[in-house]
Each structure stands twice: as C-alpha cells, then as structure tokens.
Design a protein that fits this description.
Blueprint lengths: L1 E5 L1 H5 L8 H12 L3 E4 L5 H8 L8 E3 L4 E4 L4 E5 L4 H12 L6 E6 L3 E6 L5 H14 L2 E4 L8 E9 L1 H12 L4 E8 L2 E11 L4 H12 L3 E5 L6 H6 L2 E5 L4 H6 L2 E3 L6 H9 L8
Parallel strand pairs: 1-2, 1-12, 7-8, 12-13, 13-14
Antiparallel strand pairs: 3-4, 4-5, 6-7, 6-9, 9-11, 10-11
C-alpha cells in the first residue's frame, strides 16, 4: 500500500485554516479508492479534531511534530515522547532569562490536555493565551494550577526576534531538545518558538506508521522546517509553492500553492481521480 501523509497549516489547509470544498472532494475520492492517508502536524489533537472530522481520517495521526500518535480506532494515544524534568528546567530557564513567557502544554490522566503559563506580561501574550484556548479547545490556566502528575509535551513562547533567537541558541546546547521557530502571525516584529523532545519528529513518526501499517511507499506533503525530517524518510516528498526554500530544495518536486488547492490538484492527477469527482 501507499501511504499519503499531509502537513496541515500551509499545506493541506488554505489561508483560512480550512479544508476547501475542492480538497474535501479530493479526499473523498481517495477514500473511495482505498488510498491510505493521514496527517503529521505541529498542532495538537484538540486543535485538529474538528478540521479532520468527516474527511475520512481513520488511520493513526501524528500530532505535535511527532510527540504523540493518536489512534482513532482505539480512541487513545499509541506513542508519546514527553520532556524530562531536566529538559523542562533547561527550557524554562532559557525562556524566562529572556523575559519571555513560556506556555507549557501538558497531557494529563484521562487524556486531558491543558496549557499553563506564569503571569502574562502584556496584551500580545494575553491574546496568544486566548488563541490557544479558542483554537485547541483546552483549558489555559495559571502555572500554579498545573498538577504534579502532568506530562509536558512541549513548551512554546512568543517574543521579539532577539529574545527568541537567544532562546533557540540556548536550546541548541541541549542534545535532548529540538526547537522550531518562525515569524509570528501577530506580525514580523515577533517570532514564535516551539520546543519538544528531540526523539519526537514527524520523520520518526512516519517510520512508525510505515511499519505499523505495512506501507510499501510513503508520499508526504509539507511546507516548513518541521516537515524536513519526514521528507528524509518518505519515498516521495512534495512542497507547495508557498513552502520555505529549504523545504523546496529537499522535495521531490514543488507543486501548487496551498491556497490554490495545490496538493489536491496534484493528487487528482497523480491518482487519476478526476473521473470520480463530480
């Protein structure tokens, strides 16, 4: 079998963070042909569930850049990579030293997710906290309320470029950690950073899915740095025209823009789906 693995933001989703009608119909045609597909995203399960519902995503799904694999059939996580206490301390020290507020993402007993933070410093962080709550549908709470048995999946932060660059440099010195950073949606004057365990990657998760599902070939689609690890593991890797230059350079080919249904148009041609789509 061939397994298709989609990144979401900037790839399968359009600029409104939606699956377009054209892409919806393409996914339905793939399902009708029993062509296997799933997602590998930096989002959490809760921030993805509504997007994926009704679009045939029945296979195990990769969340938080490989930190967790969710199996819909069992309604449970089948694979997890949490931060150790030493790594958590190192990240928090690095972030707080730059006067940046860490947002701590957790998985707690009963598959409960939450986001915790120390006191917010300004309106941008308050807006970010509200966005986490609205987008992921999980509680965003003061760090003082974090339970002792919470496992920490990742730590994120938002700040001016100099501060985030300094955090990234400090994280690079820790072999157990990996960080992804970029320009924030809030504007070019800010950068975001997301930090998790180095054993977690989309590439490692794709290897697990290949073995678990018995896939003979893997085709993946992605646009950003966190997709490079799965590009290295896939038999074919495709970057939309809006992808970062490094991702385009690593791709088998560059295809259409994510906001012009580039991935769906490629799939219709690759698998001869046009006759199945009304």
């Amino acid at each position: 079998m061939e397994l298709i693995v989609f990144d979401l933001d900037g790839t399968l989703l359009n600029r409104h963070s939606e699956i377009s009608a054209y892409t919806r119909d393409t996914l339905a045609a793939l399902a009708d042909r029993d062509i296997a597909y799933t997602v590998a995203t930096g989002r959490t399960l809760h921030a993805s569930r509504d997007l994926l519902h009704g679009h045939g995503f029945r296979l195990p799904q990769v969340f938080k850049n490989g930190v967790m694999i969710w199996n819909p059939a069992d309604d449970a996580y089948s694979h997890q990579n949490f931060l150790t206490q030493h790594e958590i301390q190192h990240v928090l020290e690095a972030v707080l030293a730059q006067d940046v507020t860490p947002f701590i993402f957790t998985l707690e007993p009963g598959n409960r997710h939450a986001v915790y933070h120390p006191p917010l410093r300004h309106s941008v962080e308050e807006k970010l906290a509200a966005e986490f709550s609205n987008r992921s549908g999980v509680a965003v709470l003061p760090a003082s309320q974090m339970p002792a048995d919470a496992e920490i999946t990742n730590i994120s932060a938002l700040g001016v470029p100099a501060s985030i660059d300094a955090v990234e440099t400090l994280i690079d010195a820790e072999p157990g950690l990996v960080a992804y950073a970029g320009v924030a949606h809030e504007g070019a004057a800010l950068r975001w950073i997301d930090i998790h365990h180095s054993d977690a990657s989309k590439g490692g998760a794709v290897d697990l899915l290949r073995e678990q599902l018995g896939a003979s070939r893997v085709l993946c689609f992605g646009d950003s740095d966190n997709d490079l690890s799965m590009f290295g593991r896939a038999d074919e890797a495709y970057a939309p025209d809006n992808a970062k230059d490094a991702v385009k350079a690593a791709a088998t080919a560059v295809i259409g823009h994510h906001d012009e249904d580039g991935i769906a148009r490629f799939l219709r041609e690759r698998f001869g789906l046009e006759s199945q789509v009304a």
